[in-house]
Design goal:
Elements: E1 9-15, H1 29-35, H2 38-44, E2 48-54, H3 74-93, E3 97-102, H4 108-121, E4 126-131, H5 152-156, E5 179-184, H6 189-198, E6 201-204, H7 205-211, H8 213-226, E7 230-236, H9 258-271, E8 274-280, H10 291-303
Parallel strand pairs: 1-2, 1-3, 3-8, 4-5, 4-7, 5-6, 7-8
Helix pairs in contact: 1-10, 3-4, 7-8, 8-9, 9-10
Length: about 325
């Protein structure tokens, strides 16, 4: 692993998509994160922050596929995903570390696809850590609700059903073996069977209670490092317990505590493996005076090296290189 501690550029990109979820309001997520001081905090940590503003969905592109049944707002999501995949690829190529601010979790179908395309070209394997209360491994054939934010992880692993979603954009799927579902506590019956069939690594809240987050997150880190891989972190607000982060439309009791989440962020920073980040499902409409936005900014701060006292870490690298 090449040390890239001298690379200190971060590219922020808002993706105010909300139609992938049933509860409206996540389109305000990027503005809330900025208002809570995300850019300023990263600059205080010594990074050069390039804020690319908010992405707009593609418009006017020819439609050639047939929308699948049971995938709500497919055409709208398609325009977002194609735009996000193309922009994510460009940002990853630029050498900056991209942070995609959502917006609902359907955005990851574009952000991760673009990042994966870049790293595959560099000959590096991309792993994805899915910090979420939900597996998001539904397909149009298994989903109960038809909400596409619940299909994002399955799409990234190449599951069928949304094959025309990217249009002319190259599809850069990861393998199920490169996905880690972490913090899961809500999963549909058919979705659960599909996850089992694919042998996807799952750290549910029972395992977290039994073994602790440090043991389980180090297992993820060790798997990525053993393959000389790179890690995309997709962080859904509902990974946290609602007591710590109420501003989310998919609230599930019994999530990670504030301190557990910070420890995960700190260990991921220490690993030096992270190459890109999603922060999704923040819904300011449901929040309490910006509380959840501030919590998420603090957690991103820990992910990028903020700490109470100086201490030696295994790596000062911020993210890996394709060199």
């Amino acid at each position: 692993m090449t040390d890239l501690s001298h690379h200190r550029r971060i590219a922020l990109l808002g993706a105010p998509v909300e139609v992938g979820a049933s509860q409206r309001g996540t389109l305000m997520g990027p503005a809330a994160m900025r208002t809570a001081g995300l850019g300023a905090l990263l600059e205080e940590l010594g990074f050069t922050v390039e804020d690319h503003g908010d992405l707009a969905p593609l418009d006017g592109h020819p439609v050639i596929d047939t929308p699948p049944e049971n995938a709500k707002h497919y055409r709208d999501i398609q325009k977002w995903i194609q735009a996000l995949s193309a922009r994510a690829y460009v940002l990853a190529q630029s050498g900056a570390l991209p942070i995609f601010i959502g917006g609902d979790h359907s955005l990851s179908m574009g952000s991760v696809n673009g990042v994966a395309r870049h790293w595959h070209e560099q000959g590096r394997e991309l792993f994805v850590l899915w910090l979420d209360a939900h597996a998001d491994y539904n397909t149009p054939a298994t989903t109960i609700t038809g909400n596409m934010h619940g299909m994002s992880a399955a799409f990234l692993c190449g599951e069928p059903g949304l094959d025309g979603l990217l249009g002319a954009e190259p599809r850069a799927s990861i393998t199920p073996a490169h996905l880690d579902l972490f913090g899961i506590r809500s999963i549909d019956r058919l979705e659960k069977e599909l996850v089992r069939q694919r042998r996807i690594a799952v750290a549910d809240m029972r395992q977290i209670d039994e073994f602790g987050v440090s043991v389980l997150i180090r297992r993820v880190i060790d798997r990525v490092r053993a393959r000389n891989g790179v890690l995309h972190v997709s962080f859904d607000v509902d990974f946290l317990d609602p007591a710590a982060a109420p501003g989310v439309g998919t609230m599930v009791p019994g999530g990670a505590t504030y301190r557990e989440a910070h420890l995960i962020m700190e260990l991921l920073h220490d690993s030096g493996l992270m190459c890109s980040l999603d922060v999704v499902e923040l819904n300011p409409f449901l929040d309490e005076r910006g509380r959840t936005a501030r919590v998420m900014v603090e957690l991103v701060g820990s992910l990028f090296g903020q700490q109470i006292t100086d201490r030696r870490t295994p790596s000062n690298a911020i993210f890996p290189t394709g060199e």
